[in-house]
Q: What sequence folds into this?
């Protein structure tokens, strides 16, 4: 019966493919106005230009590494972890090390990060990703590690719970993504927890259209039936080889995919397979709106945190991975922020380096000594040779404190 | 009385400085043999050449960054975390976020990682360190993250317990070290969890001498009295500005410093301040042997793990940060290791991409189809357009499975 239903779905998909071909035609560039004294150069089609630029961006991406790191020792432990990590990304919902954390999810990491993140594709690739962490992540309201970012997907895209921080599974996944990033210069990002190769995500035009309320889910339904249903199923259930995109086994409402801007951009950049970067902004946004108009699991954050969120709140200052700071928690923090250069704080230098022999600063026997006198003592007295690391500026600072 | 004791210690130190100057003289290069027909070029002093090479290595180290990353948003969260991390490294045993984890330790991170790891010095600097993780670490018997490496120091060098993986303190420290590593290309290391700038650590000559039993703690005592005691105290208790080097507030027996090879190398590369890389291999090893012959806290691993080590053993496969795998745990692992390229497994490809419509491989209605026929169907049939991502090699693999 299942196969019969699938065949029926396929027939429907093929029929709708024919019926909807019109909606997939690209907008032609506007003809030059006949009133122009000279024919202006035909304005470039911004949509085509945008997609061409993204294709060029993808073409410029470096290849993933092919050789695993080889230890000179007997145990190829790092290579083992990298291979295990790749396997977990491909088999997230069936491998014994990760399946318990994603419940009934029909998704693996590789559902969105195609070919386990090896594929050169915007918003999908893991190539270079590890070099951008720790970074500020708006969703979490704080700085997050790569481990946190991975766990964000476990909680949301895969509708599961966080892998333990000290689990072999999480370390393996991070080792694998780090390997796909080898050679990339570390660049902590103060604004976004996103890889350097994925900075075009999301598509700003799709964002503007979504904010302007221009998503048309009904159009998305037609496109879905023709372009997506052959693999994802007319009920969004996912056929073999393609993940469910709605229903209880799909991503939950906390996932990036549940946001039409992110889903539309991801779809445009990655789907359909081998035809990525062909959907227009409007088409991609419409498909996203249609898919997100279907049922998805709700997202109640505490249900996706260890122990139901215990330890992720309260008065103690804890960095809340995957959870947000409250204003009170931010206010309660131990102050940091810019301070005077501690290396040039004369009183502190005196306390740390001079007071042991010369007594407290207030009643010091060497009050009034000049920088020149101090420098001479350091150079001449063996007992003060340990102070030779002080810079001239530091000696000046100590002398100033002694005035 | 304390100050009187210190003054007495200082006098003793100054006296021993004079008495021991002979032991600190460098070995002269051997004179050329008069029997030589021509005077051979004076052989280089290997010790002097080694130290000069290390000085050149240090001089070539890049500066630490000076500007904090500036967010375009209102909250300078990443900069906050970096500054907090530096503060924690300098105030580890007094700051409220870290002091509870290091008990009565007289050490901070900055005791060994001078100037909070900003100093250009082998075995001390944090510049570039974050780019070398995750890496295999022999002591832990596995792959470790930078967080693990930091926690190794909390457990051993600072004789405390591990910071929680999700603590603000650990994230801040990692953010800071990552910032000191910005621009360094990621390079996972299959052999050693050590920064690219610290690869000369430990000194191989010191290692060879230590293994040959050539450490002379009594000589180390003389050197200690003259060169170290002025700051570290005649009882190793640490004067203001210098940490204790033995006793209950010093590093424990599990620390790298408790190993004469590592301690001797670190001392040669970093001490005395502003006179680093002047002690000979023998002198540095002797000082290390003397210091390590004094009392230090014992290291019982379980006492330094959360919950007394609960969760760090047992049948479940858990990656044991800071603890070692047993042979049974390694044997019990889910196998990984090299496998055939899954992307070219024809039967698996058929199951994932073809079986939904064509039924199981064994009774497939399309058995016997050639690669050319399959490719033509993919190109020509809209219902098979979703297979356009298959490579020619993958189509060949499917065709082979269908034979």
A:
């Amino acid at each position: 019966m299942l196969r019969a239903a699938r065949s029926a779905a396929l027939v429907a998909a093929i029929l709708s493919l024919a019926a909807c071909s019109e909606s997939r035609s690209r907008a032609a560039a506007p003809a030059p106005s006949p009133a122009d004294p000279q024919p202006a150069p035909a304005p470039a089609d911004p949509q085509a230009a945008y997609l061409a630029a993204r294709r060029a961006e993808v073409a410029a991406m470096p290849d993933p590494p092919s050789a695993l790191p080889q230890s000179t020792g007997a145990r190829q432990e790092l290579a083992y972890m990298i291979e295990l990590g790749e396997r977990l990304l491909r088999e997230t919902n069936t491998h014994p090390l990760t399946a318990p954390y994603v419940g009934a999810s029909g998704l693996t990491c590789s559902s969105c990060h195609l070919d386990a993140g090896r594929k050169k594709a915007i918003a999908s690739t893991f190539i270079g990703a590890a070099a951008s962490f720790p970074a500020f992540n708006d969703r979490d309201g704080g700085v997050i590690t790569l481990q946190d970012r991975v766990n964000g997907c476990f909680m949301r895209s895969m509708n599961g719970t966080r892998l333990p921080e000290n689990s072999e599974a999480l370390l393996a996944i991070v080792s694998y993504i780090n390997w796909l990033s080898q050679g990339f210069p570390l660049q902590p990002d103060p604004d976004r927890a996103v890889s350097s190769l994925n900075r075009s995500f999301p598509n700003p035009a799709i964002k503007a259209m979504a904010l302007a309320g221009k998503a048309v889910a009904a159009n998305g339904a037609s496109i879905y039936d023709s372009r997506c249903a052959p693999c994802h199923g007319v009920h969004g259930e996912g056929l073999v080889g393609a993940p469910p995109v709605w229903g209880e086994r799909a991503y939950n409402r906390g996932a990036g995919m549940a946001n039409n801007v992110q889903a539309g951009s991801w779809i445009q950049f990655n789907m359909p397979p081998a035809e990525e970067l062909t959907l227009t902004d409007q088409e991609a946004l419409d498909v996203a709106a249609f898919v997100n108009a279907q049922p998805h699991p709700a997202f109640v954050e505490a249900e996706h945190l260890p122990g139901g969120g215990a330890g992720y709140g309260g008065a103690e200052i804890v960095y809340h991975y995957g959870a947000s700071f409250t204003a009170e928690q931010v206010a309660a923090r131990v102050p940091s922020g810019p301070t005077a250069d501690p290396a040039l704080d004369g009183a502190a230098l005196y306390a740390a380096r001079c007071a042991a022999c010369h007594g407290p600063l207030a009643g010091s026997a060497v009050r009034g000594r000049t920088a020149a006198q101090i420098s001479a003592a350091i150079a001449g007295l063996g007992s003060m040779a340990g102070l030779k690391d002080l810079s001239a500026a530091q000696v000046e600072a100590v002398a100033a404190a002694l005035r």
Remarks:
- Residues 342-402 of chain B form one domain.
- Residues 372 and 395 of chain B are 9 Å apart (CA to CA).
- The radius of gyration of chain B is 29 Å.
